[in-house]
Amino acid sequence: MLYALKIASRYMTSNKAQSALLIFGVAVGVFIFIFMSALIGGLADYILSRTAGDLSHVTIEAEARVPSLLLPDEKGAVLLVQKKDTSREARLSSVDAFIPVIEQLPGVKAVSREITGGGFLKRGVQSAQVSVTGVEPAKVSAIINLKSYLVAGTVDLGPGKVLIGKKLADDMSYRLGQTVELQADTGISQSLIVSGIYEIGSGGPDRRQVYVSLAVARTLFALPQGVSRVEIKLADLYQADATTARIKAITGLPATSWTENAAQLLDALKAQAQTGLMLKSFALITIVIGIASALLLSTYRRRPEIGIMRAMGAPRSFVVTVFVIQGAMIGLAGGLLGAGLGYLVLLAFPGREAFKPGNLPIDITQGAYGLAILLTVISATLASILPARAASRVDPVTAIGQ
Amino acid sequence: MTEPLLDVRDLWKTFGEGDAATQVLKGLNLTMAHGEMSALLGPSGSGKSTLLTILGTLMRPTSGRHTMLGQDLTSASDEDLTEFRNRHIGFVFQFHNLLPDFTALENVILPTAVREGRETSAARARGRELLVRMGLADRMDYLATSLSGGQKQRVAVARALMNSPELVLADEPTGNLDRAAANQVMETIDRLNREEGTTFLISTHDDKIAARCRRQILVGDGQVTG
Question: Do A254 and A273 belong to one domain?
């Protein structure tokens, strides 16, 4: 093995230009692999952070109320069409007792109780229909990171404060510190001060969503007790289904996972991951073909030398070992060079904390450097088996006579 | 009676098939004793090189019996033949056939290194000793490509002797050298034969080389004729 390693090394160094070119070719393949890993991984994280990352991963919500019907006691059929009540006037009255239990579940990052409902934001004769969410002031950024989307003010949801979206502020010409009137669909109104303006980048929330404190929401929606829903943020959003099942089992509450309403997003992420996998596979195939063809040429060029070694009593396995080691060395050298190049190039891109719309969301931490090197060495080794076997079958008499 | 070093009986070798078949060896018989220094003579196409190749276990005969050191080599497996060749047979080719990217010393110890899988200090010592005896003490670390023709051929002789084989087969070992270099090589071979008792079978067209050998084996039309 050591002697085979020596011969393989000598073959590598005897033709430096050819070896360097081959290693560089492998390095380019590895670079593509790493770049795609960082891009696909970063893109997936970015999409998730901009979508599911700002969602509640598990939501406990009161069932919609279905009013009972009094049917006339007469013969004949009664045809009735009733629109489902989508307002969440129903309350989760017993949920408070379970909050500490849910908070202790593994993977649970934050639990936020909320009261939601519809309303109108008024300013003079102007009026805009809005969705109102009442949250605990300390947890205003627990589910959706409102703080990161602030364009003016603070996320202070003290008594009498409201947070509004930028589009709504623009439409209604609201400014920071201005007093607005919020009228709930219960008919109850309250004057509130705009303490912060956020811009999520999505038309719906930026134009129709306002946040108030849980205490203000209780007043507006006349809910002295209970909440409309509980939103739960997890450390790993892919654990949502399992955590949902646990919450249901432990509390008996109607919990739903974000994945139930995000099948399309999951499909898109899967398709994106598969695309990345295909591109990385192509990079690996390129490496395999490149190394196999280069080693085939090398074994052809070295046929006389192989013949000499065979004539001197080198077993076929020894010849195979020489060329397999050579393949592995090319893979290792190309892998290390490609990984180094990849890392250096990815350094030029902003980190994951600085992802902005319009930029390539490349995450340097997802370059899969070790995996790229490992797969390259394995691929290069496998690619060298065919040329190595061909070399071992060289007839020494014919080869020496060349 | 002492057992011969090698013995071939009724050796046939045919290349090709059908109408294209060419019989090169036709029932050849040959016996060689330990310590012989023999020249293999004959016109081109007489079968000398084919015989050397078969005796060197690089090729199998079409039929016949080939024994060396009491072992029947005609029925041995490829792996066994490779090991046998490594331990008991040395080769010197007309064109030195050294590995160009390796030094003289590295070329010499090749037969031991491929068997042991590494270059041991004992192998290096043996390689140095052989190169000193070949008069190449100052050329040990030179790449094969930087040596003269005669020096390369002496390195090839040293390589053939590395594993202390019982038989060295030399195919026109001086055919590519000038007279002075050829004499140097032959003197080395002659000395090794006398001092170490290594058996040499040298294929040659050169009468002067043949005259330095104690036995001349004449091959003609695929048989030993004298």
Answer: no
Question: Residue B39 sits in a domain of what CATH number?
Answer: 3.40.50.300
A242 and A102 in a common domain: yes
Closest CA to B51 of A18, A397, A16: A397
Site from A2, A3, A18, A397 to mutate, B interface, most B CB atoms within 10 angstroms? A3
Domain around A297: 2-50+265-400
Task: State whether ipTM is beyond 0.85.
Answer: yes
- Our count of domains for chain B comes to 1
DSSP B174: T
Nearest CA to A216 out of A242, A175, A182 is that of: A182
Determine whether the interchain pair A3/B100 forms a contact, defined as Cβ–Cβ distance below 8 Å: no
Q: What distance in Å separates residue B127's CA from the closest CA in chain A?
A: 15
Whether A78 is in a domain gets the answer no
Domain span at residue B171?
A: 6-99+164-224
A282 part of a folded domain: yes
Q: How far apart are CA B127 and CA B157, in angstroms?
A: 11
Q: Does the residue A69 lie in any domain?
A: no
Residues of B with CB under 8 A from a CB of A: 53, 56, 58-59, 78-79, 82-83, 85-87, 91, 93, 97-102, 110-111, 113-119, 159, 163
Contact A311 B82 (CB under 8 A): no
A181: exposed, middle or buried (Cβ count in 10 Å: 0-12, 13-18, 19+) = middle
Which of B50, B97, B168 to probe by mutation at the A interface, max A CB count within 10 Å? B97
Answer for the pair A159, A215: CB distance below 8 angstroms, yes or no. yes
Domain count, chain A: 2
- Partner-chain contact A312 B111, CB within 8 Å: yes
Sign of CA pseudo-dihedral A134, A137, A139, A140: positive
Chain A partners of B58 at a C-beta cutoff of 8 Å? Answer: 311, 396-397
The span from the CA of A18 to the CA of A302, in Å, is: 14
* Mean pLDDT (10-residue bins), chain A, 402 residues: 88 87 89 88 78 78 66 66 56 80 88 88 84 85 79 84 89 86 87 88 81 89 85 84 89 85 79 82 83 81 86 90 91 93 88 69 84 89 88 82 58
Pairing of strands B71-72, B63-68: antiparallel
Residue B78 lies in a domain: yes
C-beta atoms of B110 and A309 within 8 A: yes
Q: Among the three residues A237, A260, A283, which one is the final residue of a domain in this structure? A: A260
A250 with A293, same domain: the answer is: no
Q: Do A313 and B85 touch (CB under 8 A)?
A: yes
